[in-house]
Amino acid sequence: MEKIIILDFGSQTTQLIGRRLRELNEYCEILPYNKFPEQTNDIKGVILSGSPFSVYDPTAFKTDLSGIRGQFPVLGICYGAQFMAYTSGGKVEAAGSREYGRANLAYINDKDPLFNNIKAGSQIWMSHGDSITTLPTNFTKVASTNDVDLAAYKVADEKTWGVQFHPEVFHTLDGILLLENFLNICECKRDWSPASFIETTVSQLKEQLGNDKVVLGLSGGVDSSVAAVLLNKAIGENLTCIFVDHGLLRKNEFKNVMKDYEHLGLNVIGVKAKDYFYKALKGVSDPEKKRKIIGAGFIDVFDAEARKIKDVKWLAQGTIYPDIIESLSITGTTIKSHHNVGGLPEKMNLKLCEPLRLLFKDEVRKVGNELGMMHQLIKRQPFPGPGLAVRILGDITAEKVRILQDADDIFINGLREWNLYDKVWQAGVILLPVQSVGVMGDERTYENAVALRAVTSTDAMTADWAQLPYEFLAKMSNEIINKVKGVNRVVYDISSKPPATIEWE
User: Fold this and answer.
1) How far is residue 281's CA from residue 291's CA, in Å, rounded to a whole number?
2) Which of 28, 78, 186, 188 is catalytic?
């Protein structure tokens, strides 16, 4: 399959580049900046991402591009553009002030194919502290803003470009057009689609797994469900799915999800392990410790169940791109540990199969829809692997879980009743380690506060708080306080990601 390779130098928006190319029906892969593949027959072009570093920083990510430039069309974005200019003899210097936010292209070389059909005045988005101040002798300016003279360049005798702005972000209004122009330069067929992904993946799974037996950990979410249906399509009865109830699911979720799986024809084993997890979590407040305890507990329970199945050779997981990116950052910074990434295959001595590891969440949903899956499974909002444990700030008790399940049930059902559920990327309730004074009837109360959280997003890499109707929020507050024993205050979280994360822990 033809592809564009995106070399990741650590930018927060690298994944957005990949998403934009997928939206243009071009398959792409994001690889570490220094891991260009040896097999290059199917590579049509290369994009160099941005980076948190300055190119002249001794610790900056650097790689040899001699086998790439001149061999493939190349587009450098922000740091990628500066890196090519700097390593070719140009000058990159700290800007007088950080150039961040909206700008407009004051000059464009309208004969340059990268800027085909893009007009002067087009809005772009800058995000850098450095600027290219002098181009190498064989580089030519092709675009400027009023403040940045060398906003884009072309390398003579090469299909190589650099832009100091970010075409992948929403605020660069012609960014998709610029990326489409680059794909045209690369002579891409742009034939990647959910249907083609299913056909290719099922074929690859058949070849990879043969007649081997596979176990898959279901969570009830869209990722593991779509992975299960793909695997079932490829290997049928050789797949066994295990759904572990750690006691931290939403209210009645174990029963409801097991019922939903009936229509898929999957072989699913349900395991109730609430007592096991509550005992392991007793007295633990640190969020990372809670995640690791639940991850280790899941391994133990899953392992015990999987060992009852004879001759299993593979573990399948619904791991997707954001899981990997947030757990194994190229910069060495782990945002949070993820239950799907690391540990399990080594303990169980199984080979790992992750059919969705290169897909974003919205792409997984499109694949699920193409597979004919039920609406409530495809459109189910993301739910953290550790469940309500990361929505209870502090230690876990059965009573806290009961309070949070009841409050969350009212909120989620309310979103559905008001036709807001599908308009929100992710929603839930957080039980705060805060008690406040209240009055109920003639009595003074001193009970718990909960926070409602609802965000809009397309891929979970960035998110904004959902501007839900005031009338809806008022109704939810009243219902939760009146119906959930132990809650007397409700607040609404209006933080975006970044700087906040979607979950509180």
Assistant:
1) 10
2) 78
pTM, whole model, 2 decimals?
0.72
Proportion of the chain above pLDDT 70, given as a percent: 91
Lowest-pLDDT choice from 36-50, 146-160, 297-311, 385-399: 297-311
166 is catalytic: yes
236, 383, 235, 246: which is closest to 318 by C-alpha?
Answer: 383
10 Å CB burial of residue 157 (0-12, 13-18, 19+) is exposed
Burial label for 64, CB within 10 Å (0-12, 13-18, 19+), is exposed
Mean pLDDT for all residues in the chain: 89
Collapsed DSSP state (helix, strand, coil) of residue 202: helix
The span from the CA of 504 to the CA of 392, in Å, is 9
**How far is Cα of residue 81 from the mean position of the Cα atoms in its chain?**
25
Q: How confident is the model at residue 265 (pLDDT cuts 50, 70, 90)?
A: confident
503/505 Cα distance (integer angstroms): 6
- Sheet strands (E) in 109-156: 123-134, 139-145, 152-155
Residues 6+ positions from 360 with CB-CB distance below 8 Å: 15, 18, 19, 22, 320, 321, 322, 458, 459
Asked if 125 contacts 48 with a C-beta cutoff of 8 angstroms, the reply is no
- Pair of tokens at residue 91: 């000058």
Does residue 168 carry a catalytic annotation? yes
Do the strands 152-155 and 239-245 form a parallel or antiparallel pair, or are they unpaired? unpaired
How far is it, in rounded angstroms, from Cα 137 to Cα 116? 24
Q: How many CA atoms lie within 13 A of 479 on its CB side?
A: 17
Cβ atoms 3, 44 nearer than 8 A:
yes
The 8 Å CB, 24+ separation contacts for 282-287 are 282/395, 282/396, 283/395, 284/395, 284/396, 285/394, 285/395, 287/390, 287/505
Q: Residue 399, class by beta-carbon neighbours within 10 Å (0-12 exposed, 13-18 middle, 19+ buried)?
A: exposed
Provide the pairing of β-strand 43-48 with 3-8: parallel
The secondary structure of residue 400, as a DSSP letter, is: H
Residues in the chain: 505
262 catalytically annotated: no
What residues form DSSP beta bridges with 137?
none
- Active-site hit among 168, 305, 363, 503: 168
Question: Which residue among 128, 166, 338, 339 is the active-site one?
Answer: 166
Cα(378)–Cα(224) distance, integer angstroms: 11
Task: Write down the pLDDT at residue 263.
Answer: 79
H helices of 307-358, in order, are 321-327, 344-348
Kindly tell me the sign of the dihedral angle through the C-alpha atoms of 174, 175, 178, 180: negative
Structure confidence at residue 339 (pLDDT): 45
Helix (H) or strand (E) holding 471: helix 470-483
